[in-house]
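Case study 2.
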Amino acid sequence: MADLERLKSNNFVIIGRAGMDFYPDPPGTRTENAEKFVAYLGGSSANIGVAIRRHGGQAALVTSVSDDAIGRFALNELDKYGIDRTHVSSVSGESRNSLAVVETRVEDHQSVIYRNGAADFEMTIEDVSAVDYSAYGALITTGTVFAAEPSRSAAFRAFELARKAGLPLIFDVDYRPYSWPSAEIAAETYSRAGTLCDFIIGNDVEFGFMAGSYDKGLDKARELAGSTASIVVYKMGEKGAVTLTRNEEFRTGIYPVDALKPTGAGDSFMGGFIASLAAGFPLKEAVLRGSACASIVVSRVGCAPAMPTTDELEDFLKKHPGPTAAG
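Prediction:
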């Protein structure tokens, strides 16, 4: 079992992609009608890094970006948000950075993701082996890193090295079917990764996928919490979440807001949740604070720039009437 007290260092190494998000502007515009777009940092792992930085933590990203203008855009954005990119490598050839075209609208929302020949899948065992894991409080990753080689083997090697250094492993399932060669490979790989991790965060569909049946997702979460994981958060959208440990299970609601878009909530939840645990908040309160962060992000334009600071989170919690009853 990893030393969970290390979280209090508030310094995290994050494995996974950084890319570019395009938003039709002004908000509410359909992509096919757009005459202007705005660009922001994208990629789930980069977004989590921004969220942690906004809460006063330190974050270092391990990934690969394309050696072109879009890759350099991602590097500049990481610098802007104060994310350590010492271990972000640039790869040449035909690999390209991830690009997402995302609408700031809820009704008939469209997100178009370009992931062919993704540069972040070129992350190697050599890349992750160069990291001094003892310098960090935990390793965070999202499931996308396991979708292709050599990134998959590199991520599992990072798990081994981080575990040897005593780091907790934090895993956001983040299943994206379009990134995987088959559902069978994804399920097998996620199950392997899940048994290695101390914290596992996912939604009901993702846990159902891991279980092989969508109606068995909560059973899968309970199985992991009762065997290998210290904390499992089973998210259920508008119904809130179920949080499980070996000693307790509790449900929490959400903070209703007028959403501008459905994207970014999971990354913001992860950042707020982990930052709150690092700050010493009890588990249930940390889950609720993560949920509040998710609500803030969906009510703002963008993902990375929408991540709230700790002061903004506290102000939101002070003014909001409170979470819904647990579903």
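The chain has one domain: 10-314.
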